Amino acid sequence: MHTNESAENYLETILMLSKVRPVVRSVDIAEELGYKKSSISVAMKNLREKEHITVTKEGFIYLTDTGKEIAEMIYERHELLTKWLISLGVDEAIASEDACKIEHVLSTESFEAIKTHTEML
Description:
Layout: H1 5-20, H2 26-33, H3 37-49, E1 53-55, E2 61-63, H4 65-87, H5 92-102, H6 108-120
Antiparallel strand pairs: 1-2
Helix pairs in contact: 1-2, 1-4, 2-3, 4-5, 4-6
């Protein structure tokens, strides 16, 4: 189940927004990410074609099982890496920004090692 960084970011954003909103719409994603609505529209079309999301006729966006699995994996990486970097003394804002970059390229093996290490702290 390989996805690109951009798709992972969109899926993670949909997941995060769905935790605080009753429904997620393209305009919500555009607002959250600071992107143009047209860019979001293209991205949602691609995610729909890959069956990572469904979109109702009202424009409500929902993660499919595969979309949710990817989003949760990226979200877990982001949260753990952010906390880990903060524990190393990195400023919270910088830690979150760096975690966002790292979460997409880090191997499963390395992530699991970091996860195991941080659980022992």
